[in-house]
Amino acid sequence: MRTHYSVYLTKCVLFFKKFFGSLQNDYVRIIGGSLLISTLIFFVPNLYGEGYEGIKHVFQHAGTPSLVLILPLLAVLLLKPVATSVTLGAGGDGERQQFPRIQFILIR
């Protein structure tokens, strides 16, 4: 299972790096990536951050394994690599303190 998941993550990163690399305008790349990440986080808030808090929250608030427990976990499992790949492809490196670098590009 771990091998398949790592292949999925790698393919996502390569796809989004190629996609965002084809965009010549820095503004379009950064704003497009921001919109994609914002949309993902709006619909699946557990994607924000490293994901451990969201997973811990799901386990604390669910008594028995049910659809309410399984769906958020599946969403995080499937969409976290996409969110990470979009972040990397759009020019971020996943750390919050790197956003001033992106703001510098936007101000330029």
Task: Kindly describe this structure.
- The protein is mostly helical and 108 residues long.
- It has one domain (2-107).
- It contains five helices and no strands.
- It has helices at residues 2-21, 26-43, 52-60, 67-89, 99-107.
- Helix 1 packs across helix 4 and helix 2 packs antiparallel against helix 4 (67-89).
- The termini are far apart.
Please summarize the sheet with the most strands.
Answer: none
Let me know the average pLDDT: 78
Counting structural domains, the number is 1
Q: How do the SSEs run, as a string of H and E?
A: HHHHH
Give the overall shape, derived from the CA principal axes.
Answer: elongated
* Helix share bin: over 70%
Q: What's the gyration radius in Å?
A: 16 Å
Q: What share of residues are in beta strands?
A: under 5%
List how many beta strands DSSP finds.
0
Secondary-structure-derived class: mainly alpha
Poorly predicted sequence stretches spanning 5 or more consecutive residues: 97-104
Span from first to last CA? 45 Å
Q: Oligomerization state of this entry?
A: single chain
What is the count of helical runs?
5
Q: What is this structure, in a nutshell?
A:
This protein has 108 residues and is mainly alpha-helical.
Topology overview:
Elements (H helix, E strand, L loop, with lengths): L1 H20 L4 H18 L8 H9 L6 H23 L9 H9 L1
Features:
108 residues, mainly alpha, transmembrane helix
